[in-house]
Amino acid sequence: MLTRCLTVLCFALALFSVLPCVSGGTDTKVNDRTIDRTVQLRTHSIHPPYIDEDLQNRWWDFGADAYVNTNKHIRLTRAVPSQMGWLWSRIPLTASNYIIEIEFKVSGESTHLFGDGMAIWLTKERAQPGPVFGNQDKFEGLGIFLDTYANSRHPYGFPRIMAMLGDGKTEYDQAHDGDANSIGSCSAMFRRTNAVTKLKIAYVKDTYLDVKVQYKAWDDWTDCFRVEGISLPINPFVGMSALTGEVFDAHDVISVSTWSAVLSSKDAQRDKLGSSGGLFSRPPSGRRSWFSFFVRLFLFAGVCVGAVYGYKAYMVKSRFGTGGSGSFGGFGDGYGYSSRKRF
């Protein structure tokens, strides 16, 4: 029986040592470099319950018709006409390379007429209400619009995700749903879906902007668009806004998670620890996975060897112990040996 337990334990440890290596993620290539690691930025992330005991948040502001349900969401607009709400970071985003993941929800009772939509912003100015999905027109920076209402006829379908890079002078092409301003777009049925809906924005300075959307199933990311050689404003504010008119929907922000992306050095000489930036830098995830695998394999072998030796010592003690006549292995009080360990 004890031999079986040892066999099961060794098998479990072996499985544990292999799994992390198999499930490890792959690096993101940026030309001849990779994203080594990410560091979450608390200043530009927000999760339930959103506010502290003073009914405020240290790093974020919300206003106009927006309100907070601490158990569920930050609702930018209710599903009623003529609503406008916003959520903005209080301080600018200083990271050069970053990944922003927004979990959101767009819902309403109507299946035919609904709108207008919501937007994610990376701009030089913040909290300036206006007609472009609840924010000002002629903005400077990036606007990504989650548009649910078509103002004119198009060869593509709605809902639609579209990005505009504003220069502070150009108006948003409202009449044609931004066709004159688009730097990238895709159609995605993110409204009234049973899956969790998310938007992921990855930006590497002066290199690329990549946008993916999750709306079909959990962790099923769909490529929306990618723009090469793009430069966004330095130190932008992060914001979300939404607008309803004669048609309407509820627009909710569930969470925002922002990470600073750390790139590997160009042609970096790896030291004997396998790091790219000094003693305390972490190796790339590929090397890190193999290193972790071998460490776990070594620990697993040590545990198995220790278990075998312990079992042999236990058997020797059981055979040659000096306990009472009714005892097991010399631990005798006449009632038999009972292990107090719990597995």
TrEMBL record:
Recorded hits in InterPro entries, A to Z, give:
ConA-like_dom_sf (IPR013320), Intracellular_Lectin-GPT (IPR051136), Lectin_leg (IPR005052)
**Signal peptide (UniProt feature, chain positions):** 1-24
Swiss-Prot/TrEMBL GO biological process terms: endoplasmic reticulum to Golgi vesicle-mediated transport
Bilayer topology annotation: Single-pass type I membrane protein
Molecular function terms from GO: D-mannose binding
Name the keywords, alphabetized. Membrane, Signal, Transmembrane, Transmembrane helix
Q: Which GO terms describe its cellular component?
A: COPII-coated ER to Golgi transport vesicle; endoplasmic reticulum membrane; endoplasmic reticulum-Golgi intermediate compartment; Golgi membrane
List each copy of the L-type lectin-like domain by range. Answer: 38-261
What's the protein called, per UniProt?
L-type lectin-like domain-containing protein
